Amino acid sequence: MTKPWAMPPKLSVISQYLQHLNGRMRGEIKELGRLTAFLDIMNNKRLDTFFQPILQLSSGRTIGHEVLNRPPGSVHFPTTEHFYEFAGRTEQMFRFEQDCRRLSLSRYVERLPKAGAESERLVFINVHPGVLNDARHKSGETLGLLQELGLSPERIVFELTERQAVQDYVGFEKVLSHYREQGFRIAVDDAGSGYNSLKTLVYLKPEFIKLDKSLIHGIQGNREQQELLELVREYAERSPTRVIAEGIETAGELQFLQQAGIEFGQGYALGRPVHRPVHGSFPSDIIKVPVRGGYKHVSSDR
Ligand SMILES: [Ca+2]
């Protein structure tokens, strides 16, 4: 009987090293492919822009829209999250954010159904906190752009994402107050999805808290989610912060949030992201909603 051949130890190390190099090279090639695709999307303005309505839950009035920029489908970025995660890692992040802001605001104005009639509505745009903090960033640029477009800074709400990027809360609060002095407002995005949320809320004192969809999904049947919601609502009541529940997808979730006294909401049940900033509306089976302090009639004529 012959013994199976065993690779001498030295050769085995070389073989492992070559495998490692091969894996690394494939990784690098993939990364290069992603960068090329990213630059193509950025330079050729291939992001698609959507607007999702945000409603006052007691009245059904549309108070504003979140602007969402989505990349075209590609093998390099299977989801929008993959795309933004990659964008956050590149050297181009700063320029990318600036381009996105210009795109968001100019398309908002271009696609408004009737200019002037919507002059009260807010425009929520997603911003990487690192960009506001970046020395290259001049708030005057955004102000100039707004002036060009005929929008006042009071209508703009910066939604801050990726809270991990904020380390120096006191310093960052100073940066934010500079923007606030110019009229801009701040929303903390995806609140309730990460460990930093509480700290972010207390230090940054945002004008809006956007509750993460994981906290809203099926809330009418989950005691823990309800308790968290109550904590945030109580906090909001004692401060100037206002609450927006994100990811409302069913009439049951909507009714629960209305009864709990949550002021604003966003989600498929109220309006999907579409190419124009149009009004949202309640699902047709909800026309009369019980709210804290009694019943309130809500017009379904919208
Ligand atoms: Ca957002």
From TrEMBL:
CDD domains: EAL. PROSITE patterns: EAL. Residues 28-287 form the EAL domain. This is Diguanylate cyclase. It comes from Paenibacillus borealis.
